[in-house]
Write a structure and sequence with these properties.
By secondary structure, the protein is of the alpha+beta class. It has 6 helices and 10 strands. The strands form 4 sheets. It has a 3-stranded antiparallel sheet. A 3-stranded antiparallel sheet has the order 7-10-9.
């Protein structure tokens, strides 16, 4: 069996300018057999709109799971996903790299980052758009001036509620850092990351 991934402990960080992430969990609105019926079109649309309205940008996978859960379905199938994607095609949204964005708030105009409320379940790091992680990175560097990339990964993960760094968490943080560099928020020189 593969060995478990090594993780490092880090102290929690209190984000200064974060917005609280508000999750929307729909109540059950029908049975599994109702999901594919035309009579459920409006319900599916309303659930999509509610999740997107509260959580966008939201992971497409998370959105799909929330919609099917409202019909007491626990397993995502291609047929169920296609049904939801059909509804999404009728909404003013765009899917970019696995995330649903409202057309009036696209990645270049998205300037906040969202952290879990006290006691709320945190999102998986791969459920957070790289653009949002980049916004946190930008704030961290504005406050810290300069730090190693390794420290930046740790602090970034901690802002989103992760005090232990594993492969998936580091990968998501690195994508956010790369996006921040691409957008010109930060630069890396001599092993240190700083603002521009």
């Amino acid at each position: 069996a593969p060995e478990p991934e090594a993780v490092e402990e880090i102290a929690p960080v209190k984000p200064a300018n974060a917005v609280v992430y508000e999750s929307y969990n729909p109540s059950v609105m029908g049975k599994a057999e109702d999901f594919y019926e035309a009579k459920s079109d409006t319900k599916i649309r309303r659930i999509c709109e509610a999740v997107i309205g509260r959580e966008a940008p939201v992971s497409t996978d998370v959105l799909i799971k929330k919609v099917i859960s409202a019909f007491d379905i626990t397993r995502v199938t291609e047929k169920a996903e296609n049904r939801i994607r059909e509804t999404l095609s009728e909404l003013p949204v765009t899917e970019i790299d696995g995330f649903i964005w409202q057309n009036d708030v696209m990645p270049d105009s998205f300037t906040v980052y969202r952290t879990p409320a006290e006691g709320d379940e945190k999102r998986s790091m791969d459920e957070i758009p790289p653009q949002e992680i980049a916004n946190a990175v930008n704030e961290i560097i504005k406050e810290q001036i300069s730090m190693t990339r390794e420290d930046l990964v740790r602090v970034t993960a901690a802002i989103f509620g992760y005090n232990r760094i594993g492969g998936a968490i580091e990968s998501a943080a690195q994508k956010g850092i790369a996006y921040a560099m691409e957008k010109g928020f930060i630069k890396e020189e001599n092993g240190r990351v700083s603002g521009l």
